[in-house]
Specification:
The structure holds two protein chains of two kinds. Chain A is an alpha/beta fold. Chain A has helices at 43-50, 73-78, 96-103, 112-122, 124-128, 139-151, 169-186, 197-203, 221-226, 228-235; strands at 5-14, 17-27, 32-37, 58-63, 66-67, 81-84, 157-161, 189-194, 206-211, 214-220. In chain A, a hairpin with a 2-residue loop joins strand 1 and strand 2 (17-27). The termini of chain A are far apart. Classes of the chains: A alpha/beta, B mainly alpha. Chain A: This is ABC transporter ATP-binding protein.
């Protein structure tokens, strides 16, 4: 069986600086896969490269066996690769409800009413805040909105870039719980980039460790959690 | 704020002292500002030499006005505003039912506008109504329409366009040239002018796709100037600075004409005395219809995917792309739609004036239109209309203020101070209402109840 997402020997540059130095990653259907690594390792760059901005200079990215390496971002999104980007990037002056509408624009709101109820069930806080402006939400609520907006597109693959960034541990727990629930009940495939290695590894079926633009280790989530090297580098420094 | 003191009497005294102090300070600043501009005037004497004429009296009036205004401001207006703010914040928790007028503002305004020309005719007679229908009515409505058109680009899509007048020019010259050369009527050329302007909107759109904010503003500014310079220098076609005159008037769908010699002349057919007023009243309704069309389309588009995409684009381009929105086409449609309404307004302008020249399409026009959009509160149709009335109506009103001559002397021409007052008005509005007249934004989608979003979260001054 071919993987849902295959990243093959991808190199990405910012000008002359090589941010990704030949990365290979695979995500199978129905999996939660996480990518951990230190600041500047290239995690977010990989995520953005999958979305086509910036595009990979060499290598190949396949989604459902189809080459998406040179596709523009919005066409990649139309293949149902939804992204909750780094820094959330919700629409601050639009209401929560309108933000969710924007997420459903691929199907022109065909499933909107049905899906918006699902999101409100998943994140009840969003229901309370639905007529508020996105910019007035707390960080955690914004993160929920960002994920919910991505889910409104009915994605085959959800890319999450640091959903725990800047959030209180309790909220992180809630968000990760929601991701697990979606994966178990709906079979949602998730590719997750995290600095909060402990929580991310616990959640994931498989994981990759990235150092200086290269994948140095991979394996099952629990397996890496027990790995002394990983523990030394990403976990013992204090559980974030 | 005034220092807190134990007794009200002392508080008053200290406010008075502060008011006096600030009045003197304002006087000094006003003196410094105006001493060279107003206090001195260059004139030519009989032997063609440039001489300086001091104008101490006028300078004194300016300084005096500034001092009095500051004094009254500190003493009365500031405390009154503070009281109002306090009262407002106390009442903020109450669910306020907006008044009848406020709820039905648009309907009332439209009815009032429809009744405006007959009312003016009744009040001032057929000939006397000319000034009110033409100078005020039509002039303001043209700017309302232009500002609503620009609002699509700036207010909704968030693309700062400083060259909007270029599309106005394209519309005006399309009508002027095609009607004089091909003899086509206004009603055929109106959509054509719109389409041509939209085309130019796309032509501008392509190179600036990657630009945002300040960079976009500069390129659009240059685009506006390019169009104007082409109009000046391409003399074989546009007749340069001479402009094109004798442009055909619009007719009532070809049934009645407003040409004096025509057999189906409106006044002749109905046995009315000849007057230019009928044509102006007709034009008033045409521009009213065009402006309402602009508003209608804007309101509809906001609820449609493309309108939502524009608003999302204004907020975050990267997020838009990751949601599958093609930002290229979204931007181009915004430019094209905005330009199209500019083109409509332009062809109307040409039909109204009967004469177009590049002088009507200078950068200042773009700036005025943009100022109206900003003052009105980016994105708010009602606010923009109010801003247009204040800005354009205000400057027209200056011509009427002959009583100012009594204060400033017989040589005073209020029109010359137009820009000064324009600037003052903008500063006042931005100080009092930094998000424009109507800063709140109506959400285009809601689940149960429509709840307007407080102005505190809408766009403030920055592009």
């Amino acid at each position: 069986m071919t993987a849902l997402l295959q990243v093959k020997a991808v190199e990405t540059y910012y000008g002359n600086i090589r941010a990704l130095a030949g990365v290979d990653v695979e995500v199978q259907k129905g999996e939660i896969v996480c990518l951990i690594g230190a600041n500047g390792a290239g995690k977010s760059t990989l995520m953005m490269t999958i979305c086509g901005s910036p595009q990979a200079r060499t290598g190949q990215i396949l989604f459902e066996g189809r080459d998406i390496t040179r596709m523009p971002t919005h066409e990649i999104a139309r293949l149902r690769i939804a992204q909750s980007p780094e820094g959330r990037r919700i629409f601050p002056r639009m209401t929560v409800y309108e933000n969710l509408q924007m997420g459903a624009s691929l199907d022109n709101l065909k499933y909107f009413n049905e899906d918006v109820e699902k999101m409100f069930a998943l994140f009840p806080r969003l229901k309370e805040r639905q007529s508020q402006r996105g910019g007035t939400l707390s960080g955690g609520e914004q993160q929920m909105l960002s994920i919910a907006r991505a889910l409104m597109a009915r994605p085959k693959l959800l890319l999450l870039d640091e959903p725990s960034l800047g959030l209180a541990p309790l909220i992180v727990k809630g968000i990760f719980e929601a991701i697990r629930k979606l994966n178990e009940t709906e079979g949602l495939t998730v590719f997750l980039v995290e600095q909060n290695a402990f929580a991310a590894l616990k959640l994931s079926h498989r994981a990759y460790v990235m150092v200086n633009g290269q994948v140095t280790m991979s394996g099952g989530g629990r397996e890496l959690l027990a790995n002394p090297e990983v523990r030394a580098a990403y976990l013992e420094g204090g559980r974030h | 704020m005034a220092p807190v003191s134990a007794t009200p009497g002392r508080a008053e005294a200290s406010t008075m002292a502060r008011a006096l102090r600030e009045a003197v300070l304002a006087g000094i600043i006003a003196f410094g500002l105006f001493v060279l501009y107003v206090g001195l005037k260059t004139d030519q004497n009989i032997s063609n030499e440039l001489i300086l004429v001091p104008r101490p009296g006028l300078l004194a009036i300016f300084v005096g006005l500034a001092m009095v205004a500051r004094f009254l401001g500190v003493l009365y207006i500031q405390p009154a505003m503070k009281r109002r703010r306090d009262a407002k914040s106390a009442a903020a928790d109450l669910e306020l039912q907006p008044s009848y007028v406020k709820r039905n503002f648009s309907t009332i305004a439209i009815i009032a506008l429809v009744l405006y020309p007959p009312l003016m005719v009744a009040l001032f007679g057929t000939q006397g109504s000319l000034k009110w229908v033409d100078n005020f009515g039509i002039q303001i409505l043209i700017y309302v329409m232009l500002a609503w058109g620009l609002n699509i680009v700036v207010g909704l899509a968030g693309l700062l366009d400083l060259g909007y007048v270029a599309f106005y020019a394209v519309g005006a010259y399309s009508y002027a040239l095609l009607s004089t050369h091909l003899g086509l009527s206004f009603w055929v050329l109106l959509p054509m002018a719109g389409i041509l302007a939209a085309l130019w909107g796309m032509i501008l759109g392509f190179p600036v796709l990657r630009l945002r904010g300040d960079y976009l503003a500069i390129v659009t500014l240059a685009f506006g100037e390019i169009i104007r310079l082409v109009l000046i220098n391409w003399t074989e076609v546009t007749q340069g600075t001479f402009g094109i005159s004798g442009i055909a008037k619009a007719s009532i769908f070809g049934i009645y004409s407003f040409d004096v010699g025509a057999p189906n002349n409106f006044a002749k057919v109905f046995g009315l005395p000849m007057s230019a007023a009928y044509y102006k009243i007709f034009l008033f309704y045409v521009i009213l219809a065009l402006a309402l069309l602009t508003a209608f389309v804007t309101i509809r588009l906001r609820r449609m995917p493309v309108g939502r995409a524009w608003e999302a684009l204004r907020e975050d381009e990267i997020a838009c792309r990751s949601l599958g929105i093609n930002t290229v086409t979204t931007k181009l449609t915004a430019f094209a739609t905005g330009a199209m309404f500019g083109g409509f307004a332009g062809s109307f302008f040409a039909a109204r004036q009967g004469f177009v020249s590049p002088e009507s399409f200078v950068f200042l026009e773009s700036a005025v239109i943009l100022a109206i959009v900003v003052l009105g509160g980016m994105g708010s149709l009602v606010g923009i209309a109010v801003a247009a009335v204040v800005m354009v109506g205000g400057t027209e009103m200056l011509r009427e203020l002959t009583f100012l001559k009594a204060i400033f002397g017989p040589d005073f021409t209020p029109e010359l101070y137009r820009m000064l007052l324009f600037g003052l008005a903008m500063i006042v509005v931005m100080v009092l209402k930094p998000r424009g007249f109507v800063g709140s934004r109506e959400p285009s989608a809601f689940l149960h109840a429509r709840k307007s979003v407080s102005s505190s979260f809408t766009k403030e001054g920055h592009g």
